Amino acid sequence: MNTMTLWHISLPEFAALAFAALLVGFSKTAVSGANTVSLAIFAAVLPARASTGVLLPVLIVGDVLAVLTYRRHAHWPTLWRLFPAVAAGVVLGTVFLLWADDGIVRTSIGVILLMMAAVTWWRRRTAEKEDDPDGVTTRAGRVKARSYGVLGGFTTMVANAGGPVMSMYLLSAGFRKLGFLGTSAFFFLIVNVSKVPFSVGLGLIDGPSLLLDAALALFVLPGALLGKWAVNRINQRLFEQLVIAATVVGGAQLLIR
Predict the structure, then answer these.
(1) CA-to-CA dists, residue 257 to 41, 43, 150, 162, angstroms
(2) Which residue pairs from 37-45 have beta carbons closer than 8 angstroms and sit at least 24 positions apart in sequence?
(3) Which of 25, 35, 110, 182 allows an S-S link to 254, with CB 3.0 to 4.6 Å?
(4) Where in 103-152 does DSSP place strands (E)?
(5) Contact 62, 28 (CB under 8 A)
(6) What string of pLDDT tens digits covers the 257 residues of the chain?
(7) What angle do CA 164, 146, 239 make, to 5 degrees?
């Protein structure tokens, strides 16, 4: 079957998907969490479940570009502490997808994202000093890492919406801009690649969807280059505000749809 007619995609619809793919590239190298807007666009143009399968390979392309750009700034102790909890969240998300309908999925994730944004905003307003990413070695830090890890794994599996959850965690841990981007780049490359077998098993990724991905991947690179140019012109405070704002917008969209 011709990929471009698989879901009867019109030219305006493909243009919307291409813009969403460009936004994925931008979010991966500039404002993590902004790709929740891409999630909403994909879900509006394509069937809800199918959209998650089409979007995942596009995200992986963006992750590769982000790793190539910020590979020197990753904080690996944080990553190693997150991965076990994220794996548990991915498994929970897979089980959830087996029975939950689209309405339940959207509402659950939207509420989680808005809660994470509110908690992080309040914490940044009331904090007396910056945290240290190495603070995850404390007991409280480990509990927080595990909690966010499970939430991140769950949301990324059910709707590719783990970005805002991890953004909230990295901000709350006191990561600066480049450390934030480097750590999240490796995190999502590893997590998204690990999700592929689950998505294939659920029937969310197949040959035709990968052909559509090949066309959309062409738009990820210019978005990533735009993000790399923009990130050097965004100060830390504005960076944090944009990340939180993108999270709120993404969460609200999921609740409104």
Answers:
(1) 11, 10, 25, 19
(2) 37/246, 37/249, 37/250, 37/253, 39/159, 39/160, 39/161, 39/250, 40/250, 40/253, 40/254, 40/257, 41/16, 41/17, 42/17, 43/257, 44/16, 44/257, 45/7, 45/9, 45/13, 45/16, 45/17
(3) 110
(4) none
(5) yes
(6) 344 444 568 888 899 999 999 999 998 988 766 677 787 788 778 877 788 889 999 999 999 999 999 989 888 988 888 889 999 998 998 888 888 777 777 677 677 767 767 766 776 666 544 455 555 444 446 777 788 888 888 888 877 777 777 877 887 777 888 888 899 899 999 989 999 998 898 888 988 889 899 999 999 999 999 988 987 787 767 766 776 777 677 677 767 76
(7) 30
The token duo for 220 is: 């990820």
Tokens of 34: 């902004």
